[in-house]
Amino acid sequence: MIALLKRGPKCDQPEEESDRLQRAHMENMTKLAEAVTVVLAGPFLDDGDLRGIYIFDVETIEEAEALTKTDPTIQAGSLMMELHP
Length: 85
What we know:
alpha+beta; 4 strands
């Protein structure tokens, strides 16, 4: 499954909150990679609305959706995920 990370409705956070969310986002990605549910993840560097990508090693879109919901930036609304099988 592929997840495209897109700029969310609450992307304009104060710098301190944005930094905290980014650290939590990276910690979450590390956990997913260690569990081998994420096989590739990374940012896009052009500063557009499309911010990054995850490639999940899961069987269903529901599993990928559940994993995306563990991301603090998704929970906070600073990023959104668009999932594709």
